[in-house]
């Protein structure tokens, strides 16, 4: 799998608040090319599976409920050094700690409802991309 790709979701809080356009604009202005994208909704089972690594954490139930409560935008992004550069663009998990100019600083409401997801490694980017997109949906 190419190492110049990462996976993102615009989470239900940001979709509900009408921030799809603003967030996509920050992504493209940040130099990322969109190579897959769709509006979709996770079932409870999908969210449990996607966040399985967090299943022992105290916020897991809350996270699954949040991520399945409404539509999300799922996308695959391409750029040199995509995983690391996108984590920089989204900012810290907790928006109170997110740097100026980051997506979470601008759009996140709380540590749980934090507007966007970004893969944390090339390996997870590939797994998460395959979870959401068939090969024929990736350009
Ligand atoms: P990140 O999304 O920055 O990689 P994590 O992988 O640690 O953060 O956590 C996954 C998601 O779980 C976060 O984006 C957030 O939605 C939620 N989350 C993380 N920590 C908490 C917390 N302390 N309370 C509630 N939800 C949390
Ligand atoms: Mg993470």
List the helices and strands and how they pair.
Layout: E1 5-10, H1 12-16, H2 20-29, E2 33-40, H3 44-50, H4 60-67, E3 72-78, H5 82-90, H6 103-107, E4 116-118, H7 122-132
Antiparallel strand pairs: 1-3, 1-4, 2-3
Helix pairs in contact: 3-4
The structure holds adenosine-5'-diphosphate and magnesium ion (MG).
Task: Describe the structure in brief.
The protein is α+β, with helices and mostly antiparallel strands.
Q: Give the distance, in angstroms, between the N- and C-terminal Cα atoms.
A: 13 Å
In the CATH hierarchy, the architecture is 2-Layer Sandwich
Number of continuous helical runs: 7
Helix content: 25-40%
Note the run of SSEs as H and E.
Answer: EHHEHHEHHEH
Largest β sheet strand count, sense and barrel closure: 4 strands, antiparallel
| Ions and ligands | adenosine-5'-diphosphate, magnesium ion
Shape verdict: globular
Low-confidence stretches: none
Provide the structure class: alpha+beta
Number of strands: 4
Number of domains: 1
* Gyration radius, in Å: 14 Å
Could you say what the CATH topology is called? Alpha-Beta Plaits
**CATH hierarchy class name:** Alpha Beta
In CATH, the homologous superfamily goes by the name Nucleoside diphosphate kinase-like domain
Instruction: Give the integer mean of the pLDDT values.
Output: 97
- How large a portion of the residues is in β-strands, by DSSP E? 15-25%
For the biggest β-sheet, the strand order reads 2-3-1-4
């Amino acid at each position: 799998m190419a190492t110049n790709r990462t996976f993102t979701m615009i989470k239900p809080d940001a979709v509900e608040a009408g921030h799809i356009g603003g967030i996509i604009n920050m992504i493209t202005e940040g130099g990322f090319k969109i190579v897959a994208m769709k509006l979709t909704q996770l079932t409870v089972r999908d969210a449990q599976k996607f966040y399985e690594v967090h299943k022992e954490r105290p916020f897991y139930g809350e996270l699954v409920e949040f991520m399945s409560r409404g539509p999300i935008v799922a996308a695959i992004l391409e750029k040199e050094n995509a995983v690391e550069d996108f984590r920089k663009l989204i900012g810290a998990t907790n928006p109170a700690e997110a740097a100026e100019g980051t997506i979470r600083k601008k759009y996140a409401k709380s540590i749980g409802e934090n507007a966007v997801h970004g893969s944390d490694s090339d390996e997870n980017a590939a797994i998460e991309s395959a979870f959401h997109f068939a090969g024929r949906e990736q350009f």
